[in-house]
Amino acid sequence: MVGVNEYNRLMFMLEDKMWTDPITINTELGSVEVWNIINSGAGTHPIHVHLVQFQILNRQPFNVQEYTSTKKLKYIGPEVLPDENERGWKDTVKAIPGYITKIIARFGDFTGIYPFHCHILEHENHDMMRPYRVYRDKCTDEDENEHGLYILKDVEEDADIIGLKAYHPECNEVTKPGTRNPLG
Ligand SMILES: [Cu+2]
To answer: How far does residue 52's CA lie from ligand 1's centre (Å)?
Structure first.
């Protein structure tokens, strides 16, 4: 998604959100998910997902103008299989403009919070990077074995413990998961 910042400069985003916005992608440990990367912009972005290796299912072109104005997806061509040199396990995928790039991954082996981002430095820093969360159980705080990156939002000033708040859509509440010193 292409947005603008407070100086009216172009800014590339994921999920239409800033890095520090609440987490909206929650997945359960061990689950298999297909992520649809919808590129409605004009350039290719190499999207890197931390924690997992994934495979590319396919890419399919869609009507960008209609999607941009109505958020409705209308495919305008058949699914295209990935090139032969990108059919192995990947940690980064080219999201081609005008295409939905579908990737599939099994989310493990750790719970925690991990980033996914464009790997172009100028994009990932402003602000094409988002956190996602892997839960042991989405609606409990049983995450004492987390190895994830911690988001420095809502930081508690409490000794060397850094906590964070995550939004659980399924539980319809904001909870504070287990805390752990990410530097310790
Ligand atoms: Cu990019």
So the answer is: 20
**Count of the separate structural domains present in the chain:** 1
| In-domain check, residue 26 | yes
Distance in Å, CA 104 to ligand 1 centroid:
20
Lowest mean per-residue pLDDT among 20-34, 98-112, 146-160: 146-160
Report the candidate in 25, 177, 52, 54 with the shortest Cα–Cα distance to residue 109: 52
Does 181 map to a domain?
Answer: no
Read off the pLDDT of each residue in 124-134 and give the average, rounded to a whole number. Answer: 92
CA angle in degrees (0–180, nearest 5) for 55-106-95? 35
Distance 50 CA to ligand 1 centre (A): 16
DSSP at 153: S
Q: Is 110 helix (H, G, I), strand (E, B) or coil?
A: coil
Q: The domain spanning residue 104 has which CATH number?
A: 2.60.40.420
Using the mean position of ligand 1's atoms as its centre, give its distance from the Cα of residue 103 in Å.
17
pLDDT at 54: 96
Task: Check residues 164 and 127 and name the one with the higher pLDDT.
Answer: 127
Is 153 a domain residue? Answer: no
Residue 28 predicted with pLDDT over 60: yes
Predicted pLDDT of residue 137: 66
User: Tokens 């305008």 belong to which residue?
Assistant: 76
